[in-house]
Amino acid sequence: MANLYIPWIFLVQTLTLFAKCRGKVPAVIVFGDSSVDSGNNNFIPTIARSNFQPYGRDFPGGQPTGRFCNGRIPSDLISDGLGLKPTIPAYLDPMYNISDFATGVCFASAGTGYDNRTSDVARVIPLWKEVEYYKEYQKKLKAYLGNKKAKNLLSEALYLISIGTNDFLENYYTLPDRQSQFTVKQYENFLINLAADFVKKLYALGARRVSLAGLPPMGCLPLERTTNIMGLHACVEERNKVALEFNRKLKGMVAKLNKQLPGLEAVYVDVYYIFLQIITRPSAFGLEEARVGCCGTGRFEMSFLCNPHNPFTCQTQISTYFGMPSILQRKPIKSSQIMRLKLI
């Protein structure tokens, strides 16, 4: 097995161990942003879509699904790693029904955040609406399985939450409103309180096994490097420090909630250092380029700006790696070593 799989193995094994220690996981229920959106944005009026090539070109069937990736996304791989289905369907996709959602469902929306104003930027699904869809799902599940079976499934399911980067990069650092209200540290605290409230809402609705992913080194994302002209396009360390500080607070919040809420088994998943290793030592993970993406020039293209007709878009066959707007490799690899970061 190629060393390209090491970070994903670490993440999947961590969550699998968490689940196995407490019994079998009957379903994976997903909330968050583009890192775990499996196609919900296809069915709302937003420009934040990825239902066109080259997205999905390495997904089974080679078709774009609305995943902001060339292949499967983290939630898909975790579901597969837990012995459930290999992909998790989007709740708004009319191709699926409650029988499909009974073992896994995705409410995530690319471009959203903990802060409702973040979702307003691209007019995507706010986090509170994801919860409303979840309540609707619960009713359908109870009608399908019966109250007792549905309640057991909901309490034993693994809830994956991956969200937060957009709050900083699309909202706080881009628009003046939140900057006029909060210092960056105050905004971190504001988001942590929103995250805690969100987990409490899920807990009140029956969730008990919850995984919250932290932020990646967002100062190293291609667009951040592109705009860091004075820093010679190096990582923006100030934003990396913010990510670390936010992650520390998120980890503390998870520990606090585990003590406050009886029966809650929440875990914090650190993705920051996994990415940092790839960025600083790309060759150790079978990568040749860790500074730019594979959409167009790799410096700023994402969503509708990412297209297969741009001569700079990579042609190498690829698959999936967990991430936000990506650091992608341009080095040809064997089909047995397929692994790649997300196209956004």
Automatic annotation (TrEMBL):
Lineage top rank: taxon: Eukaryota
CDD domains from the UniProt entry: SGNH_plant_lipase_like
Sorted UniProt keywords: Signal
Pfam families: Lipase_GDSL (PF00657)
Signal peptide region: 1-23
Keyword Signal: yes
One function term, GO molecular function aspect: hydrolase activity, acting on ester bonds
PANTHER family, per the entry: GDSL ESTERASE/LIPASE EXL3, GDSL-LIKE LIPASE_ACYLHYDROLASE
Protein family: Belongs to the 'GDSL' lipolytic enzyme family.
Protein known as: GDSL esterase/lipase
